Amino acid sequence: MLGKLLRYLILHAIVPALFLGIGWYSGAKYGAPDLLIRAVDGVLARASVILGPIISEGARQGGETLSDAGEAASDYVVGTVEETLRSLAETDTDAASDETDEADADETDTDEIEVAMATGPAEPAEEQPEEQQAEPATPPAAAPAGASSRVPDSAMNGEIVLCQMRISNAPRGGDPAEAIGKSDETGALNGVDLMLKPATKSCLSSGYGYRGGKLHKGIDYYSDMGGDALAAGDGVIAEAVTRSDYGNMLVIDHGNGVYTRYAHLARFGPGISEGASVSMGQTLGPIGMTGASSIVHLHYEVLTGDINTNAGSFGLEPVDPFGL
């Protein structure tokens, strides 16, 4: 009983009286500006409102000594702060989740291979330009031994062949597994010759054009046999980056305002870096599935315009390679 009374007197009388005495002495000896006095009064008033319940709770939950009371009060304060922080964190997480859901809902256009069989390759996600870069992905695993390829044999014999699957925007009105041109065929844009098929061991799986009301800005070459991406023409590499959407991506400047983009490479080949010169047919790297892609393919774009803007290569205008 005596211990509790002593603790009460210390917390509610002696300590406040000590501070009051120090303040009284200091004010009487040195004085204080009115502005400071008003500010201190305001702080003390708020402190009493905040600390009063905390001190009382600490005393109520405390042990037989002042030290125990202080520890209890500290635990009470820490617990209150932690609970508040957890509440704020949960609020922030919910808000972030809502923003992510909204962002996912706004995704447009897909870079996909439409497979006739339900058991075929999965469709990759939309390729949207974004500033965030993705971590480099490892090269895709080779197809199991004895697995049936969707790349027709004729694609290995110097021809541009449509894949053995349902083709979106098939160029030249071709049917699955049908040859629509020669692998060394080129088209010209602003006096620049470009390969129509800058890929080996691959078949065309998706053409340029609108798909579900959205523009697919390039053409896709699917490969499950270890194909490589090739430079469509002579030029200088303007961009060599890794992104979360296009994965390992290259953009080549061919001059005269003509550019080509190569996305989802498994990795960049030797000597392939920004500023390096390349020639038509030079290997850029193995076809892969990095970035927002779930199947092994090359996404190839022909572009025109001025790359020297804030948007960089994403400010260029796409052109249908088979329309050259």
Topology overview:
Layout: H1 2-30, H2 34-61, H3 66-105, E1 159-161, E2 179-182, E3 186-189, E4 192-195, E5 203-206, E6 209-211, E7 214-216, E8 219-222, E9 228-230, E10 235-243, E11 247-255, E12 258-265, E13 277-278, E14 283-286, E15 297-304, E16 317-319
Antiparallel strand pairs: 1-2, 3-4, 5-8, 6-7, 8-15, 9-14, 10-11, 10-13, 11-12, 12-15, 15-16
Helix pairs in contact: 2-3
Determine the CATH topology of the largest domain: Glucose Permease (Domain IIA)
What helical percentage do the residues reach? 25-40%
- Strand-and-helix sequence, N→C? HHHEEEEEEEEEEEEEEEE
Percent range for β-strand residues:
15-25%
The number of helical segments is 3
Would you identify the CATH H-level superfamily of the largest domain? Glucose Permease (Domain IIA)
CATH architecture of the largest domain: Distorted Sandwich
| Category by helix and strand content | alpha+beta
The biggest sheet amounts to: 8 strands, antiparallel
CATH class of the largest domain: Mainly Beta
Span between termini:
98 Å
Spans of at least 5 consecutive residues with low confidence: 90-148
Radius of gyration using CA atoms only: 35 Å
